[in-house]
Amino acid sequence: MPRPDFPKTLAEFQVRFASEDACRRYLMESRWPNGYRCPRCGHAEAYPVAGRGLLQCGACRYQVSVTAGTVMHCTRVPLRDWFRAAYLVTTHTPGFSAWQLQRQLGLGRYETAWTMLQKLRRAMIRPDRDHIAGTVEVDETYVGGVEEGRGGGRKRDSSKAIVVAAVEVRGRSTGRIRLGVVPDVSGLSLVGFVDASVAPGSTVRTDGWQGYAPLKQHGYDHRPMTQGAPKEAATLFPRVHRVFTHLKTWLWGTHRGVSRKHLPHYLNEFVFRFNRRRTPMAAFQSLLGLTGQHGPTTYSRLYDAEPTG
Ligand SMILES: [Zn+2]
Fold first, then answer.
1. Tell me: the pLDDT tens digits for 2-36?
2. Cα(142) to centroid of ligand 1, in Å?
3. 62: CA distance to ligand 1 center in Å?
4. Which own/partner contact pairs does 216-220 have at CB distance under 8 Å and 24+ positions apart?
5. 3 state SS of 109
6. Contact 85, 117 (CB under 8 A)
7. What pLDDT, in 10s, does the model give residues 214-231?
8. Residue/partner pairs of 280-286 with CB below 8 Å, 24 or more apart
9. Which tens digits make up the pLDDT trace of 78-103?
C-alpha cells in the first residue's frame, strides 16, 4: 500500500497537521490511497456531514467515519493532539511518560494524556505477528535484579526475568528482532520461543547450551557455536548482545526498571520501535491504527488487553 510521505522534522509536522481538516484529509488518504470508495456499494463520491469526520455516500447514503478502526475513534481528543502524540511516541526513542505528553500537548487533564498513551502503546502489540527469517542469532539474558555472568550453569533466580532474543543477521548489520520472556531455559521454553518467532528453515545460531539442541528436529538449520568462556558470547553474537545492551539501558534509564508483570509490554514497545527505526512513517501509521484497519480483530485488540501501569 502506498503511504503518504512522512514529515522529517517536528516543525514540518506541525505545519502539515496544523488543522483538524488537514488531519482528516490525511486519514482519508491513508484509508483510500486510490481515492474514496463506499464500503457498501463502491461508489466513488461522498459528502462530509455534520459530526467529526463523517462521510456520506453520494449513491447509497451509507455513512462512514474516517476514524473508524483507529485509536482516535469515539474520543473527544482533537485529531491534531492524537497526531502529535503519535509523532512524539514514534520519534522519541526513550519513550514518553504521560506527564511529559500532557505538557507537550498542553492538555488540561493528566488522565487524558495517560489514556492516549495507553492506546498508542496497545497499537504496538499488534503489528509484529509474522516470523523473522534468514540467518538469525538467538540468545537469552537475565533482566532485573543484579546482573551477573552465566558462569558454568544456568541457574534459576526468581528475582530476574529471562528474556530471549532472536535477531536477523543482514550482512554486517541487524534486521528485525523478536523478544520474549520465558519461564526457564529448558528446551521446551527456548525452542517454543524460536518456533513462535522464527520461520522454519531459517539458519539459527546459538551457543552450545543443550536447551537449543531440539532446534534441528523443529525444522531449523541449527548452528550451535561451542564457546570457551561465557564472556565470549558477546563476540559470537554481537547483534543480539547489542540489542540486550540497548534494552537494559532503556529499561533502567527510562523506566527505572520494570516489574516482571509489565515486562512483556515494554518488550513489545522496544521491538516495535527497533523494527521501525528506519521506517518512521510505518510506525506512525501503526500507532494511530491506520494500517490493518480492515481486520476485524484490530479494534478489539486495542481495548481488550488487561490494564497496565
Ligand atoms: Zn454507497
1. 556 777 777 888 888 999 889 988 888 888 888 88
2. 56
3. 5
4. 218/191, 218/194, 220/194
5. coil
6. yes
7. 999 999 999 998 766 555
8. 280/6, 280/90, 280/91, 281/3, 281/4, 281/5, 281/6, 282/3, 283/90, 284/6, 284/86, 284/87, 284/90, 285/3, 285/30, 286/123, 286/124, 286/126, 286/127
9. 999 999 998 888 876 666 778 888 99
Which range (52-56, 135-139, 181-185) has the least confidence? 52-56
CA 103 to centroid of ligand 1, rounded, Å: 42
User: Separation of 284 CA from ligand 1 center, angstroms?
Assistant: 30
pTM equals 0.74
Q: 64 alpha carbon to ligand 1 midpoint, in Å? A: 10
Q: Which of 114-128, 197-211, 295-309 has the lowest mean pLDDT?
A: 295-309
> If you measure from the C-alpha of residue 74 to the centroid of ligand 1, how many angstroms do you get, rounded to a whole number?
23
Q: Which residue has the cell 508483570?
A: 261
Can you read off the three cell numbers belonging to residue 159? 528475582
Residue that is written with C-alpha cell 522496544 in the block? 270
Instruction: Report the candidate in 78, 88, 93 with the shortest Cα–Cα distance to residue 27.
Output: 78
Residue 145 has pLDDT above 70, yes or no: no
Contacts 24+ apart (CB under 8 A), 9-15: 10/87, 10/91, 13/83, 13/84, 13/87, 14/84
- C-alpha 146 – ligand 1 centre gap (Å): 62
35 — alpha (psi -120 to 50), left (phi > 0) or beta? left
